[in-house]
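Risk register update: the risk of archive-format incompatibility is retired. Evidence:
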Amino acid sequence: MVGIAEGGAWLDGLPALALFPVSFVMLVVVLSVRVCTRKEIKLMKNITCLVAGTLVSCFASTLQAADLDRIIVTTTRTAQTEDESLASVSVITRQDIERLQAHSVQDLLRGLTGITLSNSGGAGKITSLHMRGTESDHVLVLLDGIRLGSATSGIAAIQDLPIEQIERIEIVRGPRSSLYGSEAIGGVVQIFTRRGGGDLKRRFSLDLGSNASRGGSLGLSGGSERGWYSVDLALSDTDGIDSCRGYAGVGGCWTDEPDRDGYRNESASLRAGYRFENGLEIDFHSLRADAENAFDGSYQNESETRQQVVGGTLRYAPADIWQLTLMGGRTWDDSDNFKDGVYSTTFDTQRNSLSLQNDLELASEQLLTLGIDYQKDKVDSSVDYTVTELDNRGYFLQYQGTVSAQDLQFSLRQDRHEIFGNHTTGAAAWGYSLNPDLRLWASYGTAYKAPSFNELYYPYYGDPDLQPEESASLEIGLQGGKGWGHWSLSAYRTRIDGLIAYDAVSRSATNINRAKIQGIEAQIDADIGPWQTSSNLSLLDPRDDSGAANDGNLLPRRTRQSLRIDLDRDFGAYALGATLLAEGKRYDDLANARRLGGFATLDLRASYRISPAWQLLGRCENLFDKTYETAAFYNQPGRSFYLALNYQS
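Archived output:
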C-alpha cells in the first residue's frame, strides 16, 4: 500500500519509482504553480505567475525529438494542430492506448489534466466524469461527431464503451456551448472509432487477469486508394469485486450484499467510407455495446444495457473556398433493471441528430464557419414521464483568423429549445506568438446545460419549471516547445449559476445552487533521452457559492490536487512502463461531512515482441494494494494482474 495516511499530505511516502528523469521537469512546473496557490489558489489575481512556465524551455537542450503536432477537430469543429488551438487540449492516440495497455475508457481518462472520475464499485459500474470541477452532466461526450448520453440521466455511460473499437480520443477543456450547445460547460470529450484504410490488416487479442477477468477481440481493416473500412468485435467478462461496503440504512448502496458483482460486455463496430473523384466523401459508422451488470442495491442490483450509435458524414467542396459537411445519426441508451432476477424498470432513450456545417475561406488564414444543428430526444420507460419527446435547434457561427503574430477566434450560437425557448452563448479567444516556440493565449466563454428528463419530469423528483444552468469562464494559458516535445500552463475561473440540486423542502430538483471554480493546470509531454514521458498536474478549488448552509464548501467528489506521470522505455523487443497517479482528499457530500482520503497508485506494464506480428503484454495495477474510494462506500479494485496476447498483421 502506498504510504499516505488518511489525514496526511497527499503525496507523503511515495516510493522513488526511479522517476528521476521526469521529476526535475515536474519540479519546475510545481514551483511555478505553488507561488500562485499557497492560499486557496488565488491564481486569477496573480496571472503573471504563468510567466514562470517559460522556465521549462531551459530543458530543451536535453530533450530528444518528439512529433506532437497532431491534428484535432473538436476544439473548433475544423481541423487544426494542437499547437494552433486556443484552448487546453489533450489527445490520446491508438498508440497511447496500446502502450498504456488500458482496458477501459476510464483507465485512459483517470488522472488526465483537469479530469476527476468517481466510480461506483469497479469494472462496468457507473462512472462519473468531472472536468475542471463541473458536474458530471456538464461534459459533452461525442462519438464520431454524434452526441452520446442518456436523455433521462443526462450523462454518457463511458464505462460501457469498448476500448478495442477506439482509434483516438480528443479532450477539450473549457466551455464549448457556443459551438455545441447544451452540456459543454466543463468541456468536450470526443471518441473516434477505428477508421481503417491502407493495406489489409488483421488483429486479434486474448487477455486474462485478476477477478476472473477474461476477454478477446477480432478486427479487420483496410481499403483502397479512395476507400477505407474497419470491422471489430470484442468480448470482456469479469467476476468483479464486491462493489459496495454499505449496509442497510447507511449511504452508498443502502444494503448489505457481500458478494462479487460481475460485468460482461459484448461489442461490435463497423466503419467504412469512400472518396469519389469529384471530392465527395462519405463515411458511415456504427457501434453497439451490450452489457450485463451486477451491483449492490436495495431496489435494483442487476441491469442489462445497450449503447448504440449509427451515423454518417458527407463532405463536399462546391468551390475551392467552400467546404460543406452534413452529419447525422441516432444513439440509443437502453436499460432493463432487475432485483435478484425479478424485473423492475425500463429506461430506453433515443437521440436523433442532424448537422449542416459550412466552412468558408474568406482570405488566406481567415475562416468563417456557419452551421445548423438539430436534435430530438425520446424516452420510452416503464416510469410515467409527462413529456416523452423534446427537440432543439441550434444556429452557430465562428470566425478564425490570423493577423501577423496574433490569432483570433469568435463564436456565437443560439439554441431554440422546445421548452426553454431561445438561449444564446458566445466565446472569444486570442493568441499571440511571443516567438516561434512560445505562445500566450486567453479566452472567455459562456455555456449552459438544459435540464434532463429526470430533472424535469421524473415522478416525485422532477420540476417542469426548472431553468437551464448557466456559466461564464475566463482562461489564460502559455504553451511552448520545439522538436523535443510540448508543455503548457493554464489558469481558469468559472462561475455557474442555477445549479440543479435536490431541495429537501420542495422534495424536488430545484435551481438553488451557484458554484465558483478556479484552478491551474500544467502538462509536459516529451522524450528525455530514451524515456518517453507524459506528466500533468491539476490544482483545483471548486466551491459552493450558493450563500446557503453549504456556502464555501467544496463540491462533492472533486479532488483539489491531482498528479499523473507516465514513463515508458523500449529495449528492442522489450518495453517497460509505469503510471503514477496521486489524488488529494475529497468530500462525498455538499455538507463536507463525509471525507474521502487522498491516495496514490502505481501501475507497472511490460511487453515482449515475440515476432513482428505477435506481442505478449503484462500489467500490474495498484501495485501497493492501496485501499481507497472515489465515491463513499464503493470499493475499488486492489492489486490486480493482467496478461494479454496480441496479433497484428
